[in-house]
Amino acid sequence: MARGALLAALGLWIHYLAxxxxxxxxxxxxxxxxxxxxxxxxEGIQSKFSLRTAxxxxxxxxxxxxxxxxxxxxxxxxxxxxxFVVIHGWTVTGMYESWVxxxxxxxxxxxxxxxxxxxxxxxxxxxxxxxxxAYTKLVGKDVAIFIDWMEExxxxxxxxxxxxxxxxxxxxAGIAGSLTKxxxxxxxxxxxxxPNFEYAEAxxxxxxxxxxxxDVLHTYTRGSPxxxxxxxxxxxxIDIYPNGGGFQPGCNLGEALRLIAEKGLADVDQLVKxxxxxxxxxxxxxxxxxxxxSLAYRCNTKETFEKGLCLSCxxxxxxNLGYTVNKVRAKRNSKMYLKTRSQMPYKVxxxxxxxxxxxxxxxxxxxxxxxxxxxxxxDESKNIALILxxxxxxxxxxxxxxxxxxxxxxxxxxxxWEKESIFSWSDWWTSYAFDIQRVRVKAGETQKKMVFCSRxxxxxxxxxxxxxxxxxxxxxxxxxxxGDQSRP
Length: 488
Ligand SMILES: *[C@@H]1O[C@H](CO)[C@@H](O)[C@H](O)[C@H]1NC(C)=O
Ligand SMILES: *[C@@H]1O[C@H](CO)[C@@H](O)[C@H](O)[C@H]1NC(C)=O
Ligand SMILES: *[C@@H]1O[C@H](CO)[C@@H](O)[C@H](O)[C@H]1NC(C)=O
Ligand SMILES: *[C@@H]1O[C@H](CO)[C@@H](O)[C@H](O)[C@H]1NC(C)=O
Description:
The chain is an alpha/beta fold and 488 residues long. The protein has helices at residues 2-25, 70-74, 99-110, 122-125, 129-154, 168-179, 253-263, 268-272, 274-288, 302-306, 425-429; strands spanning 48-52, 63-64, 83-87, 115-120, 161-166, 186-190, 213-217, 238-242, 295-298, 318-320, 334-338, 349-357, 364-376, 380-392, 395-403, 410-417, 433-436, 438-443, 449-454, 459-462, 468-472. The longest helix has 26 residues, at 129-154. The protein is elongated. Residues 1-12, 21-39 and 482-488 have low confidence and may be disordered. One 2-acetamido-2-deoxy-beta-D-glucopyranose binds next to loops.
């Protein structure tokens, strides 16, 4: 049963991938010519605007119809509160995907008085991918007409408007934002689609010009740019690449089977489009877990982030992921990174760990496995695995360490150098060891910098041996790592 459903879901996913591949292989289909000449031509609108309710987030019970003013009252549209407009993406089945009611529900939980409108463009979204991709122009135009109508007819302030678009829906939101008479307050792009858009001009895709503030989550930007399901380049004021943006934790098949065994089949479709759809669930997380906000950090590359070198919050270098993002408009696009858990709540705590490896002989080793344990005022997180790509005598290395456990303020840490799992003769003959005096730690979430000292002045870290312990230094240490071997 479980396996059958999973395979069926996988089949869909393969269909999806295959369609994307043919989409990128064929030349871009010609855009269906719009018959709409003026924006006031409500007749041409094919998209539908369903005002969902908190009680029935799953059902289309009332449509707002541009040009028909009475529909606003009939649907109990609240003119004084915020409006969220949710735009779905390409669909294989021609039906709403299961995330739609989840997002609607989370929006109402966070903003009970708001209006959550779901744009239904399902008939155009279930075409051959390039055709649906081209339809984003018409969908964007429909949404723009709807928004202009709300503004002109009801003086609805566009400061209260937030568009959320997933995949192709992100580009439709961008086009809508570029067409409205007044600028929209905010557009959130949830893993905007890559194929046919990676190299497209800014006017035909989501871009920072489309709203006062555009924030983007990139969660499935894998492979060469023309094959990536999510767009790779930054397209907003803030572009966040969780876990590097390529692939999300918990989205490999083994993990999927484990989750099904644990939680049942309810979320199987979510597992199948797992990394792409993770963008939505990260946003939902930010709505539901107000007390567990995930922080993202600006960084030039994901490699630099992996070294723990980007955990700064100075000058807006860090920001909240999702709903409570600070609206920082950098001059250039700013790429931001963070790690997450594989399930909700996604928040983790980031640390930079910096170690200087002293030694009498010159040794260089690559891809060395370490275990770090963190002990804090509130809790502890043991045996966090860490691979250092290179270690070399008398050099300092920095690495990112992260844990889902909130340990409070860090009091003590241990470091263990593991043997590789593959037997190595050189390891058998030689015992590798480095001397370590201090470990420097910076906590991303608290921005606290701490120095930890060996209890014995110097610790001997030997490969394959027990962990060495570092405690909070009692005296203010020197800035240099050399010299100063005496400690009180
Ligand atoms: C409309 O929303 C406002 C808050 O924005 C709230 O105070 C008011 O009660 C809502 N009206 C209705 C009829 O729900
Ligand atoms: C590393 O530095 C220490 C002093 O800081 C020195 O004693 C040692 O010889 C150096 N090791 C090598 C291999 O150069
Ligand atoms: C270790 O290597 C450095 C250069 O990489 C060199 O300056 C130093 O003399 C070497 N030390 C020993 C003990 O071989
Ligand atoms: C720093 O180290 C130097 C020796 O390298 C020592 O003379 C000095 O007293 C130390 N300062 C502190 C504040 O420990």
